[in-house]
Amino acid sequence: MRRVLTGVAVAPGMALGRARRVQPRRYSADARPLEAAEVEAEIARLEAALAHARAEIAEVRGRLQGVLRREAEPFLDAHALLLDDPELHAGLLAMIRSGRCRAGAALIAQRDRLGALFGAMADPYLRSRREDFDQVIGRVLAALERDTSVEERRLAARVGDILVAESPTPAEVAALANHGLLGVLASSGSAYSHSAILARSLRLPMLTGVHEALDAVGDDDLVLLDGERGEAVLHPAAQDLARYRQWQRDAARDEQRRAGFAHAPSRSRDGRRIDLHANAERVAEIAAARALGADGVGLYRTEFLFLHRDALPGEDEQFEAYRELVLGMGGRSVTVRTLDIGADKADGSGLALASEPNPALGVRGLRLSLRQPAVFRTQLRAMLRAAALGPLRILLPMVTTAAELRAARAHVDACAVALRGEGHAIPDAVAMGAMIEVPAAALCARALLEIADFAAIGTNDLTQYVLAADRGNDALGELYDPLHPALLRLIAHVVAAGRRAGRPVSLCGEIAGEPAQLPLLLALGLTELSMHPARLLAVRERLAGMDIGALRALAPRLVRASDRDAVAALLPSA
Ligand code: PEP
Ligand code: MG
């Protein structure tokens, strides 16, 4: 019987395939306390299960090759690191030795304790790390309960098709992608999960939040996954298949046509130049940005260098990463953002702060950097050294006041002086910019641009702060709307401040990569956009058809619009 399941599309595209279910692993623990004589044997069981889980991750890694390996490796590394976490290990041993818990019960207790810690984090990226942690513990529990990896082998042998799971692990997605996986249907998980990021990189459509997925979909059922509409059609009917075939034809045609835009200039129909930059942080994204002819890297997030590790990355390690970026972009401008992590990241790296009641409004981004000057200066020194190799700009996240910018500038200047004293050839001036993602920063952009050399509007955060709607909270999906007229007024205000100050202003939130929003952003006066590399060609193509002069004439009416519908009514449709 045809049935439509709805969810949230976290990776676009469509796929038709047979369902391959991965049962959610639900474990019940034996709660009986251990006898003293059993303790050492239980620890041996736990160690064997941990070793088994490590070997499984290594095995998955060994099966991956080429681009898939490059894409999946960071995620597998993150799982391997969690598995080897000394705090986790010590906690498990203490529960078995002193608490007389069995290994399974200890694992579940640790999963719940640390899961609650991750779950309470305000930053959606960090919060989504809970899924990684659950998956890692699930792997150890599975190893504890079986002595061969039959399940894993069965999973790997299943080829093609659509993975249906509660919360698929990046390793599962990667392992199956090697065998022709077509798409992913998950009953839970966020757009910020590693699996979702991986699906986007591998260009696999993916839906999350399909709550009935595991109840409704049986193994081998035919499923049409629609990452455009956010639907999965179970047992699709003739009209669904016709729509799919049409999508395939359109997608093939679009791709062919867009390929012609790979190295075309980013220019509008009326001949105006707009800079289209890429948001990139991983090697594959830098390569894609270059291959697609991005005009630069407009946002390089550095958080990945700091997460999933015990010690902070040193200056040389950071320098190498920034150097790869500068050299990878072959002389095009790169904008590197200083660390933007939430306040309550208990990562054991020395940056961990006491937990805060409201971390999204707490010590994050530049606020954290200014409280950790040694960490900040290490990062700035690495950036300045890389700036000697090509055009690099420094970008500061979560700026709220001019005083913060002055303090940051003093650190940059002091680092440059020290580096020159040590014999490094640091350029005379390295541009330092402010992210505009706090409403106060948007309203006072003019004052900030007297200190900063450029501004980058971060609509992902600006939206959540202007509308008081947590960007990671599914329940507020409707309210979290970057097209709310309040946002448009702020964007127009910042653009005008930049023009008056003679300072460049870019926009690097998710909406920059939505071709449908391009007319609006151009009308508001933006001339530089930074987006996921996968969006570049579609945006450049749309740009080629835009008359910017005509769009800009709409600006006064756009900023006075009463709501989203009134905004849409003013703009040309796709
Ligand atoms: C933003 O807030 O819009 C942004 C680009 O930064 P991030 O998504 O990393 O917070
Ligand atoms: Mg942000």
Blueprint (SSEs and pairs):
Blueprint: E1 3-6, E2 8-11, E3 14-22, H1 39-63, H2 66-83, H3 86-97, H4 103-119, H5 124-127, H6 129-145, H7 150-157, E4 162-165, H8 170-177, E5 183-186, H9 194-201, E6 206-208, H10 213-216, E7 222-226, E8 231-234, H11 238-259, E9 275-279, H12 283-291, E10 296-300, H13 315-328, E11 333-337, H14 366-371, H15 373-387, E12 392-396, H16 402-421, E13 432-436, H17 439-443, H18 445-448, E14 454-457, H19 459-467, H20 485-501, E15 505-507, H21 518-523, E16 528-531, H22 536-544, H23 548-552, H24 555-560, H25 564-570
Parallel strand pairs: 3-4, 4-5, 5-6, 9-10, 9-16, 10-11, 11-12, 12-13, 13-14, 14-15
Antiparallel strand pairs: 1-8, 2-6, 3-7, 7-8
Helix pairs in contact: 1-2, 1-6, 2-6, 2-8, 3-4, 4-6, 8-9, 13-15, 15-16
Bound molecules: phosphoenolpyruvate and magnesium ion (MG).
Phosphoenolpyruvate is lined by residues 299, 301, 340, 437, 458-461, 508-509.
